[in-house]
Amino acid sequence: MLPGLAITWSLSSVTAYGIHGLTLAQQYLSEGENLVLTSLPTGVYLNPLQQRRIQPYLDMAPKLAEILKNNPHEKVTLRMPAFHAVGNDFLGFPGQFQVRGSPNVGGAAIEYCTMSDEAKGVGKFYDKIIAYSHYTADFLSSLNVAPVVVCHQGVDTGMFHPRQKSGLYKNRFVIFSGGKFEHRKGQDIVLAAFKHFAARHDDALLVCAWQTIMPIQGFPLRPYSHLTSLPAQEPGQPLHLDEWLLAEGLHPRQVIALPFLPQATMPSIMAECDVAVFPSRAEGGTNFVAMECMAMGIPTFVANGTGQKDLVSHLGAPHFGHPQPVQNSGIYPSVEGWAETPVEAVVEALERVYADWQTARDQALTLADTMKAWDWTAQNQRMLKELAR
């Protein structure tokens, strides 16, 4: 058993890292009591029993975060593993480099396969790095800054599992697309493909979970994407997706742009969908939302590149054909290994499911059964073992 566990990123029910940390913390609390959280939690939504169990640690987190903020030159050494978020250039959460565990472990999802010399020096802060995909692991291993192991993130199969449709949209062909609005997630590819598909099928309905309050960073327009405009946004506010989608030529009956929603509300929405598409240009991990759709038994197509490639090679996830290299507009430090999914490949996938949905559904249900092996319980247990080594 671990002597304790420190998690230095923000726990949440609405972000990928936040959900990962929240599930890991709860799993640790099924075995131990010495949990330390050093970042302010944001938007934690749990059932009352789960909330009661973790609340004392959530209450302590803002106090520890404030101490670290007010004493930026002080270091804290813990006699327990400390788990830190690792992003591009080894960036993480405020205060995490003040916390040193035994061992000191990074959880990494990297999109850009480039690293400055300064960042490589930061990488030596870690005794070990847990990579959330082979794409991330291969790049970090090439840097030779710390030992790297692969542990895929999981999915809550108790929440995300096959369900019957309610029949609310029984006369529509419902297409789901999820992920915060940014160029690497490929929403422009989805929109362009949907326009082509909907021109031939007037029952098509796009349900998009693209909302974000983060500023849209580096979303190039044509010729580097399929867009000529971007949604309006006030600082710190959600995107004006509805107005933008109509300006892009969609009819109100063709699209539902979802607001911010807690994770627990998503299964009932996904259950109404006939197909899900994820033509991401780059994923440092395996893509939480794609895995949730797969666990729901929804016919789900992913780009066969970067982190999502593991879903194809390990689980047999359906994927888009004919990936191309991504053309760098100059806004990214690197697009090495990224995959550009042709619009035609997405349209082809949609047409295939439209023509024979039952076969696609049967195959998706088989895949959903396979996804049970990737439940958070199993995946977090692997991570806890790696943290203990």
What does this structure look like?
This protein is of the alpha/beta class. It folds into two domains: 5-150, 3-Layer(aba) Sandwich (Rossmann fold), CATH 3.40.50; 173-373, Rossmann fold. Helix content is 35%, strand content 13%. The strands form three sheets. Strands 2-1-4-6-7-8 form a six-stranded parallel sheet, with helices on both faces. A five-stranded parallel sheet has the order 11-10-9-12-13, with helices on both faces. It has a two-stranded parallel sheet with strand order 3-5. Strand 9 (173-178), helix 5 and strand 10 form a beta-alpha-beta unit. Helix 10 (343-355) crosses helix 11 (357-371). The longest helix has 23 residues, at 48-70. It is globular. The N and C termini lie close together (11 Å).
Total helical segments: 12
The SSE string, one letter per element, is EHEHEEEEHEHEEHEHEHEHEHHHH
Q: What is the share of helical residues?
A: 25-40%
Round the Cα radius of gyration to an integer and report it: 21 Å
Instruction: Kindly report the CATH topology of the largest domain.
Output: Rossmann fold
Give the total of beta strands.
13
Structural class: alpha/beta
Please identify the top-level CATH class of the largest domain: Alpha Beta
Strand content: 5-15%
The CATH superfamily name of the largest domain is Glycogen Phosphorylase B
Low-confidence stretches: none
Quaternary assembly = single chain
The termini sit apart by 11 Å
Number of domains: 2
Give a short account of the largest sheet.
6 strands, parallel
**Adjacency order of strands in the biggest sheet:** 2-1-4-6-7-8
Mean pLDDT: 96
